[in-house]
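Hi Y.,

Following your request, here is the sequence exactly as I used it, all 179 residues.
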Amino acid sequence: MSCNNATGVRRTMADMIELVKLQGRLFAIDSREAIKRSIVSVALAGLAIAIAVATLTIFLLGISWLLTEQFGWPLSWSLLLVALISAVVTVLVLLAAYNALRRAGSALGESADEFGSNIQWLQERLATPPQPPASRNGQGSEVVHAAGPSAAGSPPGTASTYAAARHERQPGRSTVGTP
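Below is the corresponding structure, written out as tokens. Let me know if you'd prefer a different format.
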């Protein structure tokens, strides 16, 4: 194995290790965010269940009796009307819980997408033959390479891009891929 090949392999291995570290950090951040978002979803689902139980007991009896007394309706018709209204309210609360849970899962989707692009970058990097060292202004053969994910040839969306995206992210908005 020549010196250039050994240097290229070492550089690629160092980039791979850095990439795995960054992917782990991204997954941890996204997992915490997903858990935070899921708490709201679970709370809304619990609220929907509590509303459904309370609705069935209170509305079906209280409002139905009121309709029967005020309008002279048969108790069966007033019970049916109140049950339909309570079902609509319950469905609306469950839809809100479903939407919040779906948004919570999107945080992990971003991590999976980024992981896929990192794997694609790695495959392309390993498939490309090493290039001869670049010279600086035509003087000598000094290689210009900064170690780490911000170096030339590193996968897109690493290091400072991740940090900026996580720092500037606002709830409900995706900023993956923006500096």
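The helical segments are 3-71, 75-127, 160-168.

Thanks again,
Q.
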